[in-house]
Specification:
Chain B has 324 residues and is mainly α. Chain B has helices at residues 15-18, 41-54, 56-78, 110-146, 148-162, 166-177, 185-211, 214-221, 226-263, 274-282, 292-319. In chain C, helix 1 packs across helix 3 (60-72), helix 7 (174-205) packs across helix 9 (220-258) and helix 10 (263-273) runs antiparallel to helix 11 (276-304). Chain C contains 11 helices and no strands. Classes of the chains: A alpha/beta (343), B mainly alpha (324), C mainly alpha (311). Chains in contact: A-B, A-C, B-C. The interface between B and C is large, with 42 and 49 residues.
């Protein structure tokens, strides 16, 4: 860490008013429009939202994977232990990628290079950041495959991605991501492409590895079920902005934004009374080139009034400390939710 | 409202970053008042036509092809001279008012020769394309759908035809079929025989791919039988790349024939055929000012080939925009 | 990998033998290939010698076996024209053509692959536009047009001798003699290769695993030169397998244009002279070489893309 000037007392990773806009022939696409959050060591923070909410883009911006000519960053900064990532020269950013911050992606079949052996791909990750020989790197890859629970690692080391099952591939990706003991792991929909039973295994694996290494995990997903059992804190995103943020308990038991309410009401809950009706949110998320004025959710919102169109509601504290929501009618949301879960 | 995260109209490298896949529980919006089922195959054609029209190169190509076809048809009518007519007093004349493109070493008018050559080239090109398309589609579909022994046999046959380097195979075939060089049909026939294996293989690959597709299983599950499945479901979806390839084959056939005539194989001597004209014309290249003899037919070939190639490209892009 | 290779080799041998059968049928079964035809009269003793060698008085199947034996032992008989051993003529011409094809392929790959990569990696830049424009037009220009244009314009004796110097044997400047024809062959094909490479590279660059490679912190040079290249070159290799056929055919034309003393020129002359033994020999040779090269390309492809080894 010393060589890139990181400050051990600053928050591990923080995003500060980040905006990522793309210039296209359909106008400006505001993929990320003023997002701020931070994460501490060993924490699991979930970013929840539908497709097109900007959650993946914000993660990829952290790693510098967003190409800059079509994208512009009008405001905002990303800081790792106080050092700005966005102002860092590319050379230094590359040193961090895969070392301090690593990422796993949604579809492990397409995320792994099909023409190289799995073991070689992991070893490459190791050798890129640590000065070790090929043999040592290969052995490390072998150890990692064992650590993530892949049976017969010595055989698997020399196989190709298409010879692995879906769950195994994701384990291999996790092994690769954690090979240099990063401080932050960005997990972009890690379980969406997998079967339900495998999903649970992968999440359990991530938790175990996190305990062992004290890694912070940013869990990006649209699946509230996964979030409920594995996240410490949640940021709910909609149309490029954070609309509600709090601990998992706070979000699940005391939602204060109409969108969060809508998400929860469309879930079947084991911990609620049996006969409530599922209420899907009507309509579709907006195109990011054409975000509705004011609160972006208002066209689909059952609580919306004219006030919602007037201006973008700021994030304000609602219930516990640190629980914020950007909804003008958060009190009405609270009441509606109480009614819904009351026995 | 537009489909969330639909990247197809963004046209940037960033488009893949915004293309977060829709989770299965999300439905595509139905436009008010439009019955989605009615928007059937006819509007698919409209889509294809629209995409094709947007492709400028393809449209230019199409226009040129149209022009060439018209020229070929009226050629014999508007040609000022009989291309076979020799005039030994008038040999190797540079282009003039009398002979628009000059005369060759036997006094034949080059312009008329080229017009007839155009007709020849188009006939051969389209003939080869149709022949190889027919054979390829038929045998490829049979091989792909029936599988097993039939498939193996047909595949071996294509292997053998493909074992001959194109020109060498053509030479042998033509010499066998027509040692005396009496007509151009052996050329067409030979080229078809050498071209169909590739279309056949393509078709077979397509049929294999669509045969296992889920909608075919769905069709089977509601009781549709063999030939019906092939005709209604497999064929329309397999044909596209084969068609595109066949179209590029027109240009290839024209060039191949020209190449064969260039070498002296194929068309009877003295036929007004571009390849032969180039070959004979070039013999005089040391004579100053005579390069028109081979340059004009060369330009003709290039233009024709390019025109068909552009159309084929446009066809490919409009049949499946994902292919680009 | 081993099983794959064995299977493919067995297939190739089968194909070659069947192809030979076809050639045999084409030339022998339909008549006497050694009779005089056209205006070239073949001296009767040559005719007799050849007929005996190929056992033309014996039943067809025996003829085929004799023919096979002759082909594989390299004994093609005596040519009509100069009454030399055909194998002699071939042994002089083959190395020349090999030199030509090898140089042509190298140039082809060099120009085509590089142009394609540059056009894809620096998309929308001046180089991309240039490459796209050039290749769009170049694919419509047939080999002989390129060859003729080059020959007409560059045939100064000083730099690019186009007259064969076979009288001088192997000269130190064989590269010069080969350069123009090889360049002609290469240019005709490089346009296809460049477009293919560009398209393939563009598609690969959009793939998820490239994003992963960058997320690993690898340098852009490694991302493109290793991860992207390995994947994007696969279709090009497949294409080259087919392209070799066109190359061999194009060699005939190019050698004829430049009077380059290789197998192609030999074939051309024998067609003119109706010199059947030579034609037969060259065709057989062409088929064998082509099948062998296709086989090697297939194996190379399987090596590059492990997914297809299962088929």
């Amino acid at each position: 860490m010393e060589d890139i000037g990181l400050d051990a007392s600053a928050p591990l990773l923080e995003i500060d008013d980040l905006r990522v806009h793309f210039k296209t022939d359909r106008g400006v696409v505001k993929a990320v429009d003023g997002v701020s959050w931070s994460i501490a060591e060993g924490e699991t923070m979930a970013i929840v939202g539908e497709s097109g909410s900007g959650k993946s883009v914000s993660a990829m911006t952290i790693l510098g994977l967003i190409q800059s000519p079509p994208a512009v960053f009008p405001t905002g900064d990303i800081r790792l232990r106080g050092r700005s990532l966005m102002k860092m020269p590319e050379k230094d950013q590359r040193k961090l990628r895969g070392r301090e911050i690593a990422m796993i992606f949604q579809d492990p079949l397409t995320a792994l290079n099909p023409v190289f052996k799995v073991g070689d791909q992991i070893a490459e990750m190791v050798r890129n950041h640590q000065k070790v020989s090929r043999i040592v790197a290969k052995r490390r890859a072998l150890d990692l495959l064992g650590e993530v629970g892949i049976p017969n690692p010595a055989v698997r080391l020399n196989q190709y991605p298409h010879e692995f099952s879906g769950g195994m591939r994701q384990r291999a990706m996790i092994a690769m991501a954690l090979s240099n003991d990063p401080q932050v792991l960005l997990a972009d929909e890690p379980t969406t492409a997998l079967d339900v039973t495998v999903q649970a295994q992968i999440m359990a694996l991530l938790e175990k590895l996190q305990e062992d290494r004290n890694t912070a995990i940013v869990l990006i997903t649209h699946d509230l079920g996964v979030v409920a059992s594995h996240a410490d804190r949640i940021n709910v995103m909609y149309a490029g902005r954070i609309v509600e943020s709090g601990t998992t308990d706070e979000i699940f038991y005391q939602p204060r934004h109409a969108y969060t309410f809508g998400l929860l009401a469309s879930l079947a809950r084991m911990d609620h009374r049996r006969q409530e009706r599922l209420m899907p949110i009507k309509g579709q998320p907006p195109s990011l080139a054409n975000v509705p004025k004011g609160c972006a959710f208002h066209p689909r919102c059952v609580f919306a009034t004219d006030k919602c169109k007037a201006a973008i509601p700021p994030l304000e504290p609602v219930a516990g400390i640190g629980h914020v929501a950007a909804c003008v009618h958060s009190d009405r949301v609270a009441v509606a939710y109480e009614e819904r879960v009351a026995t | 409202m537009t489909i969330p995260g639909d990247p197809s109209d963004l046209r940037l490298p960033a488009e893949t970053l915004l293309a977060e896949p829709a989770p299965e529980d999300e439905f595509l919006p139905v436009e008010e008042g439009v019955d989605p089922i009615k928007r059937g195959p006819s509007s698919q054609f409209a889509d294809i036509r629209r995409r094709f029209k947007r492709n400028k190169l393809a449209m230019i190509g199409l226009a040129v092809v149209g022009l060439l076809i018209i020229l070929a048809i009226v050629g014999p009518l508007i040609a000022p001279y009989d291309p076979y007519e020799q005039n030994l007093l008038n040999t190797l004349q540079a282009p003039s008012a009398d002979h628009l493109l000059g005369t060759d070493e036997l006094g034949r008018d080059l312009f008329s020769g080229m017009l007839y050559g155009l007709g020849l080239a188009l006939m051969v090109g389209i003939g080869v394309m149709l022949g190889s398309l027919f054979l390829g589609l038929l045998l490829g579909a049979i091989a792909g759908y029936l599988g097993g022994a039939t498939d193996s046999v047909i595949m071996r046959i294509t292997d053998i035809f493909l074992a001959f380097p194109y020109l060498i195979g053509a030479i042998i075939l033509i010499r066998t079929l027509d040692p005396g060089r009496q007509s151009i049909f052996p050329v067409v026939f030979a080229l078809i025989l050498l071209a169909w294996p590739t279309t056949g293989r393509l078709m077979r690959g397509q049929v294999l791919a669509t045969r296992e597709a889920e909608y075919v299983e769905a069709a089977r599950s509601i009781g549709a039988g063999g030939p019906r499945i092939v005709l209604r479901h497999i064929l329309p979806n397999s044909v596209a790349p084969v068609l595109v390839y066949a179209f590029t084959g027109i240009g290839v056939a024209i060039v191949s024939m020209a190449g064969l005539s260039f070498l002296g194989v194929g068309v009877p001597p003295d036929t007004p055929e571009w390849g032969r004209m180039i070959s004979q014309g070039f013999k005089f290249f040391t004579v100053p000012g005579s390069s028109y003899l081979w340059v004009f037919p060369s330009i003709a070939i290039v233009i024709t080939t390019l025109a068909f190639a552009f159309v084929a490209d446009g066809l490919r892009d409009s049949l499946d925009p994902k292919l680009r | 990998m081993g099983k794959f290779v064995i299977r493919r080799v067995a297939q190739a041998i089968l194909v070659i033998i069947t192809a030979m059968l076809l050639i045999f049928l084409a030339l022998f079964a339909l008549g006497d290939p050694f009779a005089s035809s056209g205006d070239k009269t073949v001296p009767p003793d040559t005719q007799a010698a050849l007929r005996a060698k190929f056992g033309l008085d014996k039943p067809l199947p025996v003829q085929f076996l004799v023919y096979l034996k002759n082909m594989f032992t390299g004994d093609f008989g005596i040519d009509f024209d100069q009454r030399r051993q055909v194998s002699d003529m071939l042994s002089q011409a083959i190395p020349a053509t090999v030199r030509l094809t090898v140089v042509a392929i190298l140039l082809d790959i060099l120009i085509g692959v590089l142009a394609g990569i540059i056009a894809a990696v620096w998309r929308y830049s001046f180089w991309d536009v240039l490459v796209t424009l050039l290749t769009t037009f170049a694919i419509g220009i047939p080999v002989f047009v390129i060859g003729l244009s080059l020959r007409a314009n560059v045939s100064g004796e000083l730099f690019f001798p186009t007259v064969p110097r076979s009288a001088f044997g192997d000269q130190p400047f064989w590269l010069i003699e080969v350069l123009l024809p090889a360049f002609t062959l290469a240019v005709a094909d490089a346009a296809f290769v460049a477009r293919l490479m560009r398209g393939s590279m563009l598609e690969v660059l959009r793939a998820d695993y490239i994003r992963t490679a960058r997320a690993k912190g690898l340098s852009e040079r490694t991302v493109i030169g290793k991860h992207a290249l390995r994947n994007s070159i696969i279709p090009v290799v497949t294409y080259l397998g087919i392209g070799i056929g066109a190359l061999l055919g194009g060699a005939i034309i190019t050698e004829t244009i430049f009077q380059y003393p290789g197998v192609g020129l030999l074939l051309y002359k024998s067609i003119l002279n109706n010199n059947n033994p030579v034609i037969m020999a060259i065709t057989a040779f062409g088929v064998i070489v082509f099948v062998a090269i296709s086989l090697m390309i297939d194996i190379l492809y399987a090596y590059l893309d492990p997914r297809i080894r299962l088929s």
